[in-house]
Inverse folding.
């Protein structure tokens, strides 16, 4: 497996797409901090309102789509270039090939995330003169976000490995990440919606009053549906990432890492099992 | 060109991505209908501004068009077409016409499903007929502009997987309102009014028909003409190996 890992990482360092994704994450992070700095310069007030610890995790959801693009194309190339066949012909087991690919995909996804976090912090240090406000909160959230990003790689790898057509594989992986991103937004919106809209009175410029009584929200999610939404909000990696971005962490901080770890174990076990049985022609 | 079109339509009928897009559009329409019906049953009778635009159309079309056109390269069909004596312009425009028709069918699948359901529960229009047709025209014009951009992309990138990825990224960036990152007026107008993605967004968010500018179809036509002209010019000189 050492040889497979060495070959995979050599391919990673030479991969233009990987460096393109890294540059994109760097520019995105720098742009985010710059925009915050320009707003701070325009309106003033306290620095902490513009440069806060959570800013570094502002793209944890978007890392899913960037890593999906990279993993889809990187793994798909193994089939289109015949690398997969060569690896098998020289005697590597399917399990070793899968785990070596998993290692390189996890490393790439983590590096993409770390580049964003590090660029945000360094740009903040240069522009705002501050680094990390609450070290305990920051490093705790960073550890959780790294597990979530690992879950992205563990989720996209089986899809890319099991679909031999490169274009079909990359389409499936990107569309899955998009659907999961939308799912995170929908679930967050549904769970955040109030059960009852408060009564209110508005007086317009002419002095006329408009009143609405207290009203039940017809779109409020309750019962079994709410329980399902809450479970998905805890389990699905993009939902977990949305919780970090929106600073909506569960009361028990262990919930997200535990579900992520279970998610990684299940997807990897399923991936290895299906890959072992796959007819590679 | 008629032979090229006949061959393309035969391929369209057998295209998996085309049928998957139609099934997804029909499913989205059905889900939207039943979700609305569960809360506001009286609103599902209304067929008008709320039902005119299908969401996520850009992603469906990007996958359908790039995979359809780039199959020409991956299967070497493009070389066969050229050896068969067809001009590059004829190949470009026959592909454009085929995927345009396919895209209009995919878009219409959403409307037809909603219309069928709303007729079933007692059809009611919430706008005059001329405004309704204006919205249909604007949406089809925006879809045409989208098609021209994706065809341009597909004809320039020969690798199917890279073309699909590039088209999906383009759709993702455009759906995220790129104009919001800057205050420059031209960029704001370009992305919000001229580009089809901005027009589709405005149609989804519109309160009344007045929110939709009458010039939108003209912008879409301009985008179609410019991108097709660029596409044909580059495709003519492209080294197809």
């Amino acid at each position: 497996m050492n040889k497979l890992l060495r070959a995979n990482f050599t391919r990673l360092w030479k991969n233009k797409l990987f460096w393109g994704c890294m540059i994109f994450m760097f520019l995105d992070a720098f742009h985010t901090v710059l925009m915050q700095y320009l707003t701070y310069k325009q309106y003033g007030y306290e620095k902490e309102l513009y440069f806060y610890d959570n800013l570094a995790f502002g793209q944890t959801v978007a890392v899913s789509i960037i890593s999906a693009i990279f993993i889809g194309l990187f793994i798909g190339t193994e089939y289109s270039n015949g690398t997969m066949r060569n690896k098998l012909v020289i005697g590597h087991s399917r399990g070793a090939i899968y785990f070596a690919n998993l290692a390189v995909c996890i490393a790439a996804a983590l590096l993409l995330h770390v580049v964003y976090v590090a660029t945000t912090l360094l740009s903040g240090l240069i522009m705002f003169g501050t680094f990390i406000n609450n070290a305990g909160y920051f490093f705790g959230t960073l550890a959780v976000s790294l597990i979530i990003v690992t879950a992205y790689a563990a989720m996209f790898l089986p899809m890319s490995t099991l679909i031999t057509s490169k274009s079909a594989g990359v389409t499936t992986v990107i569309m899955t990440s998009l659907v999961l991103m939308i799912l995170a937004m929908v679930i967050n919106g549904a769970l955040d919606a109030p059960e009852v809209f408060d009564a209110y009175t508005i007086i317009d410029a002419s002095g006329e009053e408009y009143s609405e009584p207290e009203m039940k929200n017809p779109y409020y999610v309750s019962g079994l549906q709410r329980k399902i939404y809450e479970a998905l909000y805890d389990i699905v990696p993009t939902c977990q990432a949305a919780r970090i971005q929106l600073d909506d962490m569960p009361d028990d901080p262990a919930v997200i890492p535990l579900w992520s770890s279970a998610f990684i174990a299940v997807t990897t076990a399923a991936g290895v099992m299906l890959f072992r049985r796959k007819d590679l022609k | 060109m008629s032979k090229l079109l006949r061959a393309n339509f035969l391929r369209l009928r057998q295209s998996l991505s085309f049928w998957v897009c139609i099934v997804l559009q029909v499913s989205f329409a059905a889900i939207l209908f039943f979700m609305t019906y569960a809360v506001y049953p009286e609103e599902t009778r209304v067929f008008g501004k709320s039902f005119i635009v299908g969401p996520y159309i850009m992603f469906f079309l990007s996958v359908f068009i790039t995979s359809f056109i780039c199959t020409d390269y991956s299967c070497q069909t493009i070389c066969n077409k050229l050896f068969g004596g067809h001009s590059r312009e004829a190949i470009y425009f026959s592909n454009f016409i085929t995927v345009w028709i396919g895209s209009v069918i995919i878009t219409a699948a959403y409307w037809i499903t909603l219309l069928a359901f709303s007729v079933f529960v007692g059809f009611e229009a919430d706008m005059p007929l001329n405004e309704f047709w204006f919205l249909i025209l604007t949406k089809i014009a925006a879809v045409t502009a989208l098609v021209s951009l994706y065809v341009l992309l597909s004809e320039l990138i020969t690798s199917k997987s890279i073309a699909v990825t590039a088209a999906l990224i383009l759709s993702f960036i455009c759906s995220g309102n790129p104009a919001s990152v800057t205050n420059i007026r031209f960029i704001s107008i370009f992305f919000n009014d001229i580009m089809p993605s901005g027009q589709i967004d405005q149609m989804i968010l519109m309160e009344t028909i007045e929110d939709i500018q009458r010039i939108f179809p003209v912008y879409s036509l301009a985008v179609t003409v410019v991108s097709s002209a660029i596409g044909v010019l580059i495709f003519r000189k492209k080294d197809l190996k």
In short: The CA atoms of residues 106 and 153 of chain A lie 5 Å apart.
